[in-house]
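Hey, can you fold this?
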Amino acid sequence: MRAVVQRVDGARVEVEGRAVGEIVGEGLCVLVGVTHEDTEEKAAQLARKLWSLRILDGEKSCSDTGAPLLVVSQFTLYGDARKGRRPTWNAAAPGPVAEPLVDAVVTRLRELGATVATGSFGAQMRVTLTNDGPFTVLVEI
């Protein structure tokens, strides 16, 4: 699994002009990509990493501060543009594989005590955020 994690001061996901997920104030906006070899255990590992990642103000984590997370599925994280001008998506897991694993990340985060908002799997989403820092890291499990 691959995640792009941004420290934010608010983030929102809209589908067809309607908000489907939003966090207010300090938190993390997490774009999650799934590949073919990913498993429920990797989803649990990613959730634990996101919950304890010390990138909030004062080197704190969401577990330290109770900061919320906005988790958005992002198959394009496994796009490959090394050849030609058009990316390929061969490394991205198909929806029936990816959706339950992204859901597993969200479920596990909530079990850990996190407040989690989400996007809408497979929808054309508009994600807006205020990157705080800016601070962005790539996490691979």
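Oh, and this one too while you're at it.
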Amino acid sequence: MSLFLFLTVVQALVAAALVGVILVQRSEGGGLGVGGGGSPSGLMSARGAADFLTRSTAVLATIFVLLSILLAAMAVNVTTGREIDTSLERTVAPVAPSDPLAPAADSNAAPAPAPPAETPAQQSDDPLAGAAGQ
């Protein structure tokens, strides 16, 4: 696993270098625009800087793609040992009561009596209460 971590760090460094090299280039392919004096041939000319940046972009991109493939292959080898559980059997843990202040249910206790039903005489005189039931 340490090789995987090392290659991941190298991948991040290559990605950062690739972004940096791409951002330094000119959009028209003119490179850094270094020139203005000195020899027109060589690395320090505009043409030489553009060629260097183009080659370094190609090399970094190739390294990035190869590292991506290598890391993907290593990740597949690590995760293939797992199996999918296709059984429907599940164990259920006992559920705690939702109200911690409520007394524990006693299996020997008699069930609580149901409240008596209201008769029409016990209904309130509120006119809205009668309208809701109709």
